[in-house]
Design brief:
about 65% helix; single chain; about 0% strand; mainly alpha
């Protein structure tokens, strides 16, 4: 059993004997460096670099959260107040319902 494992290990190590180092096209690294140095950054590139900063994202999130809290608090305050015209008392509501139930008392 031990010799079988050793044979497998030797076969795996011997399979790497004919492997050669990979080579790239000539001057690839030089071309990439030159392209990166000569690239003209546009307005959009500068804007995206500015927006992608973590502090800018944090400030934008805080502004959005503050705006949401402001809108919710204003809606909460205005929704609790009822105009006198909108308010229906229970008696008025019941009177309207009972009038609909009595079909014999329909006036022209």
């Amino acid at each position: 059993m031990n010799t079988n494992i050793n044979n497998r290990v030797d076969a795996a190590l011997n399979s790497l004997d004919d492997v050669k180092r990979a080579t790239g096209k000539p001057y690839v690294l030089t071309r990439m460096k030159a392209k990166m140095q000569n690239s003209n950054s546009s307005i959009w590139d500068n804007a995206l670099q500015f927006i992608s900063k973590p502090m800018v994202a944090l400030v934008c999130m805080l502004i959005i959260i503050a705006f949401n809290v402001l809108v919710i608090s204003r809606n909460y305050n205005t929704s609790n107040t009822i105009n006198e015209e909108q308010a229906l008392t229970v008696d008025e509501y019941n009177a309207n319902i009972t009038a609909l139930n009595y079909t014999e008392n329909i006036e022209p």
